[in-house]
């Protein structure tokens, strides 16, 4: 399968299509601990099993939030699929739901070379049936104040600290330190559209973790504040990982998912 190689910017890569970042120094998630998280997969239309390449989060029954760079097609005759309610993507649990994608939208200012405005949404062919194991994600708004120092992240990305990726079948999770704006500058020029977390030999995301939700606990429930965009490769947790800011893009997301 074509890997979304991290976009290499002197040791940096975008985590998605050929950009598939993993969770480094993470632990296996409890069954259905992240009911709002989905696996984005590509069906090659050749009889093989669809392959995971990015993550996303459930905005509502018809729409998924992910990174813009995850919305690049691999092959002309293949298609996107979304799997919800799953921990083990090799042996899906009972109750998992698979959907095709009818359309997707990248931010109109998305710039792959600069890795800016890296956010997008995709519409499912049929609504998800919400259950105790498949739930929507609460999104932070431009007025949300983040006082937390630690955020949660999960994904099926590579767990290797070398150039050779090793992908887990089961969802992995990690707690990440939210970094200051000054800390973030060590990975490049970060602006108001982005936030960063992890790094400094702490923990990190990696290839195929792209598009996954960064969350904090507010008023007793998880709230998404970021969408994984890019980080260093190899994934050695030396530098912070960069996320597109959900607070900044909240209004764009709401406009993008309005039904015609």
From TrEMBL:
Recite the UniProt keywords alphabetically: Disulfide bond, Hydrolase, Protease, Serine protease, Signal
SUPFAM superfamilies named in the record: Trypsin-like serine proteases
Q: Which CDD domains match?
A: Tryp_SPc (cd00190)
Q: Which GO terms describe its molecular function?
A: serine-type endopeptidase activity
Reading the lineage from the top rank, the first entry is Eukaryota
Signal sequence annotation: 1-18
Task: For this entry, list what GO says about its biological process.
Answer: proteolysis
Peptidase S1 domain: residues covered: 23-258
By sequence similarity, the record places it as follows:
Belongs to the peptidase S1 family. CLIP subfamily.
Cited PANTHER family: PEPTIDASE S1 DOMAIN-CONTAINING PROTEIN (PTHR24276:SF95), POLYSERASE-RELATED (PTHR24276)
Under what name is this protein listed? Answer: AGAP001198-PA
């Amino acid at each position: 399968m074509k890997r979304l190689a991290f976009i290499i910017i002197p040791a940096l890569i975008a985590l998605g299509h050929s950009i598939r970042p993993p969770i480094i120094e993470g632990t296996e998630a409890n069954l259905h601990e992240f009911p709002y998280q989905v696996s984005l997969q590509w069906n090659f239309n050749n009889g093989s099993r669809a392959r995971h390449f990015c993550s996303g989060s459930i905005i509502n029954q018809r729409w998924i939030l992910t990174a813009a760079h995850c919305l690049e097609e691999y092959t002309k005759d293949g298609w996107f699929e979304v799997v919800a309610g799953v921990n083990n993507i090799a042996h899906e649990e009972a109750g998992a739901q698979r959907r095709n994608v009818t359309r997707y939208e990248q931010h109109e200012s998305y710039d792959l070379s600069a890795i800016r405005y890296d956010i997008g949404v995709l519409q499912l062919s049929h609504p998800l049936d919400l259950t105790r194991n498949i739930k929507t994600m609460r999104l932070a708004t431009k007025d949300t104040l983040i006082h937390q120092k630690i955020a949660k992240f999960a994904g099926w990305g590579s767990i290797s600290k070398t150039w050779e990726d090793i992908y887990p079948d089961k969802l992995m999770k990690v707690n990440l330190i939210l970094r200051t704006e000054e800390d973030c500058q060590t990975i490049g020029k970060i602006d108001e559209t982005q936030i960063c977390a992890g790094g400094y030999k702490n923990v990190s995301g990696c290839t195929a973790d792209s598009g996954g939700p960064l969350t904090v606990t507010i008023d007793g429930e998880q709230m998404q504040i970021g969408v994984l965009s890019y980080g260093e490769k190899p994934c050695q947790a030396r530098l912070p990982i960069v996320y597109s800011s959900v607070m900044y893009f909240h209004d764009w997301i709401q406009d993008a998912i309005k039904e015609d």
